[in-house]
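[Meeting: bench + compute handoff]

Bench side (C.D.) handed over the final construct sequence. Compute side (W.E.) agreed to return the predicted structure before the next meeting so the bench team could plan truncations. Sequence as handed over:
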Amino acid sequence: MALIPRSSLFDSDRLFGDFFSPAVRGGEGSEAFFAPRVDIQDLDDHYEITAELPGVKKEDIHVTLTDGVLTLEAEASSEDKEKKKGKIMRQERRYGKFMRSFNLGPEVHEADISADFSDGVLAVRAPKLKEVPPSQRRININ
């Protein structure tokens, strides 16, 4: 597989069951990043990365490609609900900066990567390079 998540070994969401997520640690001004949940599919002619970005506006999402590393970044801000609706007893929804990066392998056509965002889900398509069969020709001997 050509798409390898960066730092997946140290994914705190997966290892510690969200214990260290910014929503728990947080507080106002928390600059911590957390990784959105993603699915990666290896399809016939492309790879597809689907990321959950609940509560994020399309204009707040940034998908960048730098030196073969695809990075998904976004920020979801929370409103001050305590003033409007009373004291919050439990808050499990996340707010803050989202970030996830992937190393693209040599099999991806970087110039044709595209992305769509609908209903809180970001879908990034990374087309595979077409395999060129090795050419063979006969060499005449003089």
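W.E. noted at the follow-up: The longest helix spans residues 12-16. C.D. will use this when planning the next construct.
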